[in-house]
Amino acid sequence: MRILVTGGAGYIGSHTVKQLIKNNYDVVVLDNLSRGHKEAVHSKAKLLNCDLLNYDNLLNTLKNEKIDAVIHFAAFAYVGESTEKPDIYYRNNVVGSYNLINAVKELAIKYFIFSSTCSVYGNPLQIPISEEESIKPINPYAKTKKAVEFLLEDFTEAYDLKYVILRYFNAAGSDPEAQIGESHDPETHLIPLVINTALGKRDKIKVFGNDYNTPDGTCIRDYIHVDDLADAHIKALEYLVNGGKCEVFNLGTGEGYSVLDIINAVENITNLKVNYEIVERRAGDPAILVADNKKAIEILNWNPKYNLNDIITTAYKWFLNKRY
User: Fold this and answer.
1) pTM, two decimal places
2) For position 105, what pLDDT does the model report?
3) In what order do the strands lie in the sheet with 162-168?
4) Using CB atoms within 10 A of its CB, is residue 257 exposed (0-12), middle (13-18) or buried (19+)?
5) Which residue, of 17, 65, 138, 275, has the greatest Cβ tally within 10 A?
6) At what angle do helices 226-241 and 11-22 cross, to 10 degrees?
7) Are 227 and 17 contacting, i.e. CB atoms less than 8 angstroms apart?
8) Residue of 298, 15, 290 whose CA lies nearest to 128
């Protein structure tokens, strides 16, 4: 099969491209490289520099590619930035996705895997969080992701399209071979921030609140290795091709770790000190976000294989040998 991966020069996209190629798929990457890295794209993938906001160019670019399925990662993904600049988030994430989905319809591509987020749940009522949890996004980024989920639902009702929506928890870690990894500017993810603090690239890290109702008072999150996410995309694609119905799956480990757990784990693995300070809570930070991943395990036959030590070890290896 020939798979189009939008945002395939980004963090999760590039890892998924590598896994697709390992599994003998023919891969076309579409990325405007505004936030991705050309160096992260696998040498066996075809890279198309194209912007989803230019519909005519997008359609013309894809017409001769004979695409069988789409895995759609391309999106802006900073919560804080989305609050400050909701206009660019709705334009890039929603209009861009609409153009892509419309092109998929025009080109009669049948299968669509969408990269969504657990933040569509907002402040959940139940922990662990299942796919039945109420959808109450509380920031523009999450709202744009939910808008695209609605787009897919409506297009599927009207046209010959099948989708899987994957709602990630906290993507983390890096390719074990350290060929590709996490490279954001600015970096907002906890594990890279803690590792860079340990390496002396930052003076200290801020811990936002230590008075939550958790064992050590700091927020708890579910960290899922990026290669486990990549594996889930391939299993979701196989599920659709084999006749599976449109579905939504949470992707997490089902295990939660606090901010202080992460700092302690980084110190233990690197044998380096992490300087941190406790500051006030951030508005809107839930105390605990942990996935109920049973649905993905049962239906997709997906089993995350990396634990927290693996995540931090692979991330540390990447940051010691960072290439881009």
Assistant:
1) 0.96
2) 97
3) 46-48, 26-30, 2-6, 69-72, 111-117, 162-168, 247-251
4) buried
5) 17
6) 60
7) no
8) 290
Catalytic residue numbers read 141
- The Cα–Cα gap between 132 and 317 comes to 37
C-beta atoms surrounding 307 within 10 Å: 13
Contact call for residues 52 and 40 (beta carbons, < 8 A): no
Tokens encoding 6: 């939008």
Q: Cβ distance 44 to 14 under 8 Å?
A: no
The yes-or-no verdict on residue 151 having pLDDT over 90 is yes
For residue range 237-265, what is the model confidence (pLDDT) as tens digits? 999 999 999 999 999 999 999 999 999 99
Provide DSSP, 117-151: EGGGG-S-SSSSBPTTS-----SHHHHHHHHHHHH
* Largest Cα–Cα separation, the chain: 57
Contact indicator for 171, 243 with CB cutoff of 8 Å? no
Beta bridge partners of 311: none
Q: Is the omega angle on the peptide bond into residue 192 within 30 degrees of 0, that is, cis?
A: no
Question: What domains lie within the chain, and their CATH numbers?
Answer: 2-172+223-251 (3.40.50.720)
Burial (CB < 10 A; 0-12, 13-18, 19+), residue 315, is buried
Dist. CA 274–CA 4, nearest whole Å? 40
> Residue 221: enclosing H or E segment and its boundaries?
strand 220-221
- Per DSSP, 105 falls in state H
Write the pLDDT tens digit of every residue in 31-40: 999 999 999 9
**Do 50 and 94 meet the contact criterion of CB atoms below 8 Å apart?**
no
Cα separation of 161 and 100, whole Å? 13
Q: Using 50, 70 and 90 to split pLDDT, how confident is the model at 284? A: confident
Cα dihedral 218, 221, 225, 226, rounded to 10, equals -110
Closest CA to 252 of 131, 168, 126: 168
